[in-house]
Amino acid sequence: MKRFTVLVIMVCAAASAAAQQENPDPQLSVFHTISSERLLAYADTLSSPGFGGRLTGSPGFTAAAQWVAGYLERWGLQPAGDASTYFQTFEIPWVEVKDAGALGLHLSGNDGEMLDKWYRPVADFYPGTNSDSGSVTAEVIYAGHGVTAPERGYDDYAGIDVRGKIVLIDIDVPVSRDDDQYADWVPYCYHQYKLNNAAAHGAAGLLYVNHIANPNTSYNEGLIYCHISGAVAEDIFFNTGKSYSGVKKRIQDTRSPASFATGKTVTITAHTVFHPRGEGCNVAGLIPGSDPKLKEEVIIVGGHLDGVGDLGFLLPGALDNGSGVANMMEAARALAQSPVAPKRSILFLFIGGEECGLLGSQLYCRNPLFPKENTVAYFNLDMVGTGSGLRVGGVESFPLIEACFTRANDQYIHRPLRVSEYREPGVGRPRSDGVIFAREGYRSFSFGTFRQEGDPRTPTYYHHPLDRIDTLDPEIMEDVAKLMYLGLTRMARADRLFR
Ligand SMILES: [Zn+2]
What we know:
Blueprint: H1 3-22, H2 28-31, H3 36-46, H4 59-74, E1 78-79, E2 87-97, E3 102-108, E4 114-118, E5 125-127, E6 134-142, E7 148-149, E8 154-155, E9 166-170, H5 182-185, H6 191-200, E10 205-209, E11 224-228, H7 230-237, H8 244-254, E12 260-270, E13 272-287, E14 298-304, H9 318-337, E15 345-351, H10 359-366, E16 375-381, E17 389-393, H11 399-413, E18 417-419, H12 433-439, E19 444-450, H13 474-493
Parallel strand pairs: 6-9, 9-10, 10-11, 14-15, 14-16, 16-19, 17-18
Antiparallel strand pairs: 1-13, 2-13, 3-4, 3-12, 5-11, 6-12, 7-8, 13-15, 17-19
Helix pairs in contact: 3-9, 3-13, 9-13, 10-12, 11-13
Bound molecules: zinc ion.
């Protein structure tokens, strides 16, 4: 070999080594643009008053859906909804809550004088998201779980007359979740069922011991209701010779109703406007696969865009689920701008109506935008924004998929990463979009985060006015988006995902 040739080879080798060092992995250029600042900015906008808490059907939700779609378009994701739009729409009635309303207990003193105790919104009660408008003052009748189950020989409404009265009822059913018979009681677990059953029995008002802002209920004309704390229920039981907690326990122990008239008078006031013909939607954007064959296979990344709205006070929904939506947006941007094209297709699905009873995920499963048999996995994100550890749920049972995420983390992210075995969904009332997909036969995984010992304990506020961005940990959100970007790229490029 001539000296010149040797020199050329040496120079070329050195240059390529330098190039490799400068840019060892083409994915990294985009990887480094994933930023906690941008993630926090997304979550901030999502939880801002402009989107009004994102109750599905409300103008705030529609504005949030258009805002997300605008980004998807800017980043070049293809519209994957109805008629070449980003939206998969559905009808949904909704209720506008004008203010927090009022809740008062009227007690008669020993001298026959009336004493009024007025309760505080949030601390003591939440207005009903689907309450009729108006005011009701009436006697309170305790009606256990509010269940009429003739085939189980159980009726909380037997032997009481609640017409024109206010019923006081508990969440759940007389058997616990770990009981063998629980499956038979599932139809009676739904909040909608309980409200409808109270209305069917002629109740004019309802106090629901479920101290939370919750739109997963139903509107019944003539029924005014609110959600109360256990302490308010104890006040109503005061001087009846029974305690609320004692009666509740007895119903569980004996599985027989213990309904009775409390002799107490309560006022519930609600200011609402019913909109029977609202519209909700899922927002769907696709990154099409680059491989002529593998592009037919689809990975869905889903998370709910909606929140619990505004009850005269804003419920920002920063963690639930502004965090998941922000992570999805940043991962979608990175994947769309990546120089390493995914061979399989990736669908980003921002789901509506989750808080109203998992409506958007059920709609998708009834009307899938891509064939179910070609959908290789569904990943759910819900409340993914606190702590310092990462989690990918369900992938441990699929080692080729698991490796996509564990290797990406080992190589570039270096967070504690937990994976878990795949678990078939249980029989109870489904509580996440992931369960809806799993029950439809999709392989349903999840992205999550967890707190390690020593993490700062920012409290989490669930369906609460303090669910604001100051409770989020932007650094872990950045790493969720990075893990999604790298891991989903690997999944979308792997020759095989299953052994
Ligand atoms: Zn949620």
